[in-house]
Amino acid sequence: MAKSHKPVVWFPFAAGGTVIAFCIPVIVVLTFLAALGHVPAGLGYDRMHAFAASGIGKLIIFGVVALSLWSSAHRLRCTCYDFGLRADTLVATVLYIAAIVGSIASAVFLLRI
Amino acid sequence: MSRKPLVRECPPTTWYFRQPRYLRYMSREITSIFVGAYCVLLVIGLQRLAAGPAAWEGFLLALRSPASVVFQFLCLVAAVYHAATWFNATQKAMPLQVGEGFVPGNIISGAHYVAWAVLSVVVLFLAGVF
């Protein structure tokens, strides 16, 4: 066990943190506008479907969703620990599995489009 | 035999009330809850998009419930706070050396803010907001 598994966790975490910082605020703005009743034209079914149907669109959506999920799982693990939930192995297992399941699910949904 | 061992008292659930900077740290930690929940919403949205036009319209309609409006507002605050603190940290996380000296931290963080603003405007434009 000389090798550390940490880089495997850390790389998607750092990449995900950057993706979340750059992309999630503007995506939230778009869905928030939709929530307020001003659905942006780009969120209509035809344009959204066309974007998700293209190869580059699939790649962007999958990259944003999967990296954000993984980074959030890692951050939530730390947050649980900091709030006093010290069953770290259990928390980490549950959250990382959730992130992997979410990533696979989004890949499956994207391939269906 | 030995001296009295040093025992640091650290209450596991309330330690962050001790110092304002711990509270600031925790306030940033909390944003992960909202961002994580929002990621789940994104996966649900993808599922609805794959299920066809009616499902997607239903998803957009469901976003308009009062609970969803409040949730998304909180997500927006959390996402912006996370982004700002992330960009502020970049100057410490990846200092840039040019020749003998280092590039001033404000320039590194500032460049991230500019890139963030440009990307956001481009996405809003492509999405037809303006």
Which band does the percent of strand residues of chain B land in?
under 5%
Taking pLDDT < 50 over at least 5 consecutive residues as the criterion, the unreliable ranges of chain A are none
Written as H for each helix and E for each strand, in order along the chain, the element string of chain A is HHHH
Tally of helical segments of chain B: 4
Please name the two chains that share the biggest interface, counting residues whose Cβ lies under 8 Å from a Cβ on the partner chain: A-B, 52 and 50 residues
What is the secondary structure topology, with strand pairs?
The complex is a heterodimer of chains A (113) and B (130).
Chain A: H1 6-35, H2 45-53, H3 55-82, H4 88-112
Chain B: H1 20-50, H2 53-62, H3 66-93, E1 97-98, E2 101-102, H4 105-126
Antiparallel strand pairs in B: 1-2
Helix pairs in contact in B: 1-2, 1-3, 3-4
Features:
heterodimer; A: 113 residues; mainly alpha; 3 helical TM bundles of succinate and fumarate reductases; 81% helix; B: 130 residues; 2 domains; 2 strands
Report on the architecture of this protein:
The complex is a heterodimer of chains A (113) and B (130). Helices cover 81% and strands 0% of the residues of chain A. Chain A is globular, with a radius of gyration of 17 Å. Chain A is built from 4 helices and no strands. In chain A, helix 1 crosses helix 3, helix 2 (45-53) packs across helix 3 (55-82) and helix 3 (55-82) packs antiparallel against helix 4. With 113 residues, chain A is mostly helical. The model of chain A has no long low-confidence stretch (mean pLDDT 92). Chain A has one domain: 3 helical TM bundles of succinate and fumarate reductases (Up-down Bundle), CATH 1.20.1300.10. Chain B has 4 helices and 2 strands. With 130 residues, chain B is mostly helical. Helices cover 70% and strands 3% of the residues of chain B. In chain B, a hairpin with a 2-residue loop joins strand 1 and strand 2 (101-102). Chain B has 2 domains: 8-90, Up-down Bundle (3 helical TM bundles of succinate and fumarate reductases); 94-130, no CATH class. The chains are: A mainly alpha (113), B mainly alpha (130). At the A-B interface, helix 1, helix 2, helix 3 and helix 4 of A face helix 1, helix 2, helix 3 and helix 4 of B.
